[in-house]
Design a protein that fits this description.
The complex is a heterodimer. Chain A is mostly helical. Chain A is 74% helix and 0% strand. Chain A contains 9 helices and no strands. Chain A has 2 domains: 71 residues; 116 residues. Chain A is globular and about 50 Å long. The two termini of chain B are 30 Å apart. By secondary structure, chain B is α+β, with helices and mostly antiparallel strands. In chain B, strand 7 and strand 8 form a beta hairpin. Chain B has a 5-stranded mixed β-sheet with strand order 2-1-10-5-6. Chain B has 2 domains: 39 residues, no CATH class; 177 residues, Sulfite Oxidase, Chain A, domain 2 (Alpha-Beta Complex). The chains are: A mainly alpha, B alpha+beta. At the A-B interface, helix 2, helix 3 and helix 8 of A face helix 3 and helix 4 of B.
Chain lengths: 206, 258
Amino acid sequence: MSVQAIARRTDSTVAIHPAWVRVTHWINALAILVMIGSGWQIYNASPLFSFVFPRGIALGQWLGGALLWHFAAMWLLVINGLIYVALGFITGRFRRKLWPIEPREVLADAKAALTFKLSHDDLAHYNAVQKLLYTGVLLAGVSLVLSGLAIWKPVQFQELTALFGGYDFARYVHFAAMAAIVGFLVVHVSLALVVPKSLRAMIAGK
Amino acid sequence: MARIRKIIPGVDSKLLIKDAAKLMPEASRRGFLRGAASLGALAFLTGCDIIDGDSAEGVLRKVSEFNDGAQAALFSRAKLAPAFPESAITRPFPFNAYYGEDEAPVVDGASFKLEVAGRVDNKKPWTLDELHALPEVSQITRHVCVEGWSAIGSWQGTSLADFLKRIGADTRAKYVWFKCAEGYTNTIDMATALHPQTQMSFKFDNQILPRAYGFPMKIRIPTKLGFKNPKYVVAMEVTNTDKSGYWENQGYNWFSGL
């Protein structure tokens, strides 16, 4: 039996999600909520589009408060995110759980999901739609952090800012990455509530 | 510092009083940590109410101070802000302040004298003619506002680093503090003061600074957010004491580097 196979077996018999996944997941949930809430308040100071976020759902009361929250939660998000991504590669979890993503399976599973025929018997195994969404949200997260750095440090990290099409365009990228993550969150949280045992697995591990 | 507090020549005292009233933070800015739906979620997740109190604000300010250090470490005096062609200049370049354009200070150039104080050998005040006679440098760079918007402007003036050398400033001191005609204040780190693009600007787009852009002198720092680029500057002090500044006192990050 290969190391991966043993790891897979240990994973599924002992815990659906190992402790490091659960801990980093909830720290990330906290960090991302603070980042999004404060980010909306920051957006309101100079909106990119013809709308602002209602003050009631924005964090920080005013721009200065929101910036304090944003640049504090930033450390939590990035340090926790780096640990998660490093362990995801080192333990082989990304490769096992998220790879490969077959377009045909995505279509079949999406159809099954929309007709409420998708099986959730084995929470340790991700269906193709989950694989696609989880990989997508990881990439959105990476874009979010990098575009954020490009906006924060357009002189010190000017090469990165240029990569995002300059300071002004990087703001749109940052907004789009946020919107993608919020879209993911709506689906993710709804489905976790529809399948409560998935929520229990992310808290208790089983 | 008493010599700076005396009536500054060329400053409209009525405007000074009017603006002093605006220095009070808005009531809504106090307790800015409270009352938001996403905070409800946060309290739910953490199982405790860490948000509603001075402790949270204290922690956030500590992290902001930590971020000052992190940004100072990231800052490189050799790293220049990107320069742009003349065609990229934002026209009209926006006026921005915590007051309206018609309330901007009116400084009389003829009687203006830049006060120089603190850890410098030569504290002789500078007339505008003397300042204009200094070697001219020029830059077309991006002004980035803390609010998020940006605009590209063209500034001409003299290098602050050269000026500090000229007046025999102790460049091992930690800070340079600026005072403006309307009472606005600002402190910057010495590393930024010595950055080759940090400029004492007397012109915008090759024209003497109009009132809106900070006549008679603006400190142009393309490596810092807009609010760290004071206008209507009437005094500067080289010091080891952080005297902070108008917006920093209300919670904006002190270093605010780009």
